[in-house]
Each structure stands twice: as structure tokens, then as C-alpha cells.
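pipeline: protein-struct stage 2 | run 1193 | YaiO family outer membrane protein
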Amino acid sequence: MLTSSMRQSLGYLLLFISPFFYSQENRTADELFAQARTTAFEQKDYNTSITLAKKALEKAPDYTDISIFLGRLYTWNKDWASARGVFDELGKKDVRDEDYFIAYASLEYWNNQNEKAIEILDKGLSYHPQSESLWLLKAKTHFANKNYIEAEKAIQTVLSINPKNTEATGLAIRINEFTAKNAIGIIYNYSHFDEQFDNDWHIVGIHYKRITPIGPVILRGNYANKFAESGTQIELEAYPRLSKTLYLYIGGGYSNDVGIFPKYRTGASLNANLPKGFEAEIGYRQIYFTDNIWMLTASAGKYYKNFWFNLRTYITPNKENIAHSYTGTVRYYTKSAQDYFALQVGTGISPEEYRNNLLENESFKLKTFKIGAEYNFSIQKTNLFSVSTVYYNQEYLPNKKGNQFDLLVGYTKKF
């Protein structure tokens, strides 16, 4: 039994907290909706946010924005059945809000129900044909479903509505890699040295790319004339997709003409396509002439409207010190993912340049500055042309520098 003092204390407590409960129960639907959003976005407390959204709907059952938000909350909380229940009820009410179709299709997209997502998006686009968000999600969904032709159509629609859509530009670049099952190409690289070597270099590379169920695979053969001698190299590269966000780079090469090319080269990287137009890569490269040279590589990229910014580094550790190579690149895309201007500035030697045999004898530790420009353009989407030039100021011996000028032209046919 409660004593009189306990009853008195309980009375004081109820008197203290009753205004709090009274104020909670008498909040408007808008106030509860605002608190639900704050709780979800700032505190990431989806359960509490769901409770608040439900209370708001008790006060305003036909408040569509709250119902859509509740469906999103269930999605974020991985309660797929409840989310679908909310969206299905909205569908029965013939809701036509753009955000409804985005939220519902996003649920199905992230659960790999791509056909269902496309059905929802098509219905949404019948009401909102100029919606960038709906078209962009449709492009993502077709891309995830490996329907690359439809993905390209959707992303081109986004870019026709808004040519400076950052996320669409980045996605268009990725889709472009898959729009033709086959591609063959040829590239020619000419190098002139004013001090380091007496003879100019000539390198010709031919490649064949095939889109496979796991991703692009590229077979490449290279012929070079360097130091007035000739050599050949064969390379194989693959870019398997792991998920909507991640893919790998795996590559290797072999040559029996050591000195003209490395005897072996290998490489692997994990790549991520991140939100808001960001991308990242981390991996390794290995080159073997008479000894192994191991390099760690990392890069960070960002799409912004029609621009792509990228910074890449190669780090080569050894017992005495660590050699660094850095390259910054800026691209400006014009009419498509295959048409752009690029500028490049960097220091050090990259193992992925055609001149990579300069990495022999640890000359990669010497100082190099480079600056270059590139122009890529397409004709009828299937004929791709590339022209670039690079200037190098190379320390080829300690405290002794020379200049190098490179000119590179290339052609690729997609089919």
C-alpha cells in the first residue's frame, strides 16, 4: 500500500509530467511530421520517427507527404513489408506525387526488384515526364538490370533536361562502357627526347574489348620500337562488377622483350562509385624487369556538372625511402560521355603510361614533371577518336634533366 507521503510524491510527479504529455498529444500533424524528420535525419532513430509519423497520420490520415515519409522510414529501417504496405495503400488512393513514385521505386531498386521498379517509374513518368529524378532512377535500374541500351536512353533524357546534372554525368560515363558488346581499337604513341635518348620511340597498341556477364574484358597487344630495338607485349584486363557500387580492376601483362617492356606486370584495384558524384579506388601495381617493383595506388574523383576531377597517386616503398607520383586530371564533357577535353598535371612516372619501361633501375625515384592535354570525340556514337600531347621534364640521372614530348592518337570502333 502507498503511504500518504508516497501518494503525495506521486501526485507531484503526475502534476509535473502531465503538461508534457498534454503538449505531446496536442501537437499538430505538421509539428509531429517536423519532429519525425528531425529524429530520422539528425538522430537516425527510425523507430521513434516511425512512431511520430504514425501519430501525425492519426491526426491527418490524408496527409500524403507524411505517408510517403513513413514508407521511406520503413525502407531505411529494412522493414520491406511495412514499406510496401504503405506504398500500396497510397497507390489505391491514386496518389500521383512525384516523391511517391521515387520512394516506392527506390525501395524496389535497392531490393533488386528491377522489373517492379521500372513499372512504378514508367507510371510516375506518365504524370511527370520531365522529372530528372525519375529518369535518373530509371537509368540506374536498367543499368543494374544489365539493360544498357535502355539505361543509355534514360540517362540521355536526364542530360537533355539538365545537361549539368552531376550524378547523371557520372552514370553516363559508366553506362557508356557497356552500350556495345564489342570494340576494337588502335593507338599510336610517339615520344621525342632532347637529352635522354638519341632515338625517338614509337609504340602501337591494338585492343579488343568484349562485354561479358561479369563486366568488360580487354585483350591488348603492343608493339614498340625503343632504343632502336623492337619488342612486343600482350596484356589482359577485366573489370568485374561486384555490386551497384563496387567493381574490380584486374590486369596483367607479359613480354619476352625485357627492356622494351617489363617481363611481367600485374595489378588489381577495388573501385567504388559513391553518392553525390564521388568515386574512389585503392589497389596495387607490380612491374618486373630484373627485379620486382611494387606500387600502391589510390585515387579520388568527383563529378561536378559537366566536369570530372581526379587525383591519383602511386607510392613505391623500399628500404631507404618512399617514392611518390601524383597526377591531377580535369575533364570537361561536351555532348556525350565520349566527348571531352582534358588537362593533366603531375609529378613522377606512372606504371600505366606507355613509357613505363623508364621504371627500370629505380629511375622512378627521380624527379619528373608533366603537363598534358587530351581531346576525345565521337562520330555517330560508334567511332571514337582521341588526340593527346604530354610534355615531361625528366630527371633521368641524379641532378640531370631532359625534356620529352609525347603525341598520342587513337581510334576505336564499337559494334
